[in-house]
């Protein structure tokens, strides 16, 4: 039987500032494309999900970040946020469980509120400095979305959502993901927030030559709403 053609998709992580930058560009500049994509979360699994991945022979490309890379990313975030007129926080993640927020996304998605959830969680993390690995934070965001608090606060305890999350991570493995944000269109793959425009060109069926010629034109970036928070410390910069 012929293989089923997969839809264009993007992999994002709620812990990743570069995924956040890509999300802002994607939804504010190309909302019609954002609405046409499959949104798939990616995160560092906890021991339970890791055991499921081990049993399936799935090895995710997760390595410990070096101190030098961590400091580089802090500098990079300062440059990018300044260029975009955006003030952001960089929270410290102490023994985080990323299932809490990423499985909550799947719960919100099931209610037709996936993009709204992502927007609220990115704002909470990168502009309000809140802990998105705290179930209480998920409960508060559920209230903002008009959902019962427990529907998101307890998502990590739901076996069905756990299985859906496992399937998301297996999908990332099958697609050859090695970092986020990661965009896939047919056989073409695009890694990084700065590869969004070439991905958009592929999605729209346009030749990429004119896009590649000036893909670093930051003057075209939108200016995002500022938050009354200062840049913080290292942590969660994958």
Automatic annotation (TrEMBL):
The record's similarity note reads:
Belongs to the GST superfamily. NadH family.
Q: Which GO terms describe its biological process?
A: glutathione metabolic process
* Keywords from the UniProt entry: Isomerase
The record lists the catalysed reaction(s) as: 2-hydroxychromene-2-carboxylate = (3E)-4-(2-hydroxyphenyl)-2-oxobut-3-enoate
Task: Give the organism the record lists.
Answer: Streptomyces lucensis JCM 4490
Source taxon at top rank = Bacteria
GO MF annotation, one: 2-hydroxychromene-2-carboxylate isomerase activity
Enzyme class, first EC level, given as a word: isomerase
Please give the coiled-coil regions recorded for this protein: none
Pfam families documented for this protein: DSBA
The DSBA-like thioredoxin domain covers: 11-199
The EC number(s) given in the record are 5.99.1.4
Name the active site residues: 16
Tell me the protein's name. 2-hydroxychromene-2-carboxylate isomerase
What high-level taxonomic lineage is stated for the organism? Bacteria, Bacillati, Actinomycetota, Actinomycetes, Kitasatosporales
């Amino acid at each position: 039987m012929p293989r089923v053609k997969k839809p264009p998709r993007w992999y994002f992580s709620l812990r990743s500032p570069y995924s956040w930058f890509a999300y802002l560009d994607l939804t504010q500049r190309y909302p019609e494309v954002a609405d046409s994509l499959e949104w798939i979360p990616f995160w560092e699994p906890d021991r339970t999900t890791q055991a499921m991945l081990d049993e399936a022979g799935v090895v995710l490309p997760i390595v410990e970040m070096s101190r030098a890379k961590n400091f580089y990313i802090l500098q990079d975030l300062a440059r990018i946020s300044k260029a975009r007129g955006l003030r952001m926080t960089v929270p410290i993640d102490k023994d985080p469980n990323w299932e809490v927020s990423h499985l909550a996304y799947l719960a919100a998605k099931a209610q037709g509120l996936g993009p709204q959830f992502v927007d609220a969680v990115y704002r909470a993390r990168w502009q309000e400095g809140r802990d998105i690995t705290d179930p209480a934070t998920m409960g508060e965001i559920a209230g903002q979305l008009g959902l019962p608090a427990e529907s998101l606060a307890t998502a990590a305890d739901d076996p069905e959502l756990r299985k859906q999350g496992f399937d998301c991570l297996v999908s990332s493995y099958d697609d050859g993901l090695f970092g986020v944000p990661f965009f896939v269109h047919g056989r073409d793959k695009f890694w990084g927030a700065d590869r969004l425009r070439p991905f958009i060109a592929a999605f729209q069926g346009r030749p990429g030559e004119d896009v590649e010629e000036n893909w670093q034109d930051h003057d075209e970036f939108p200016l995002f709403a500022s938050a009354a928070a200062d840049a913080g410390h290292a942590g969660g910069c994958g």
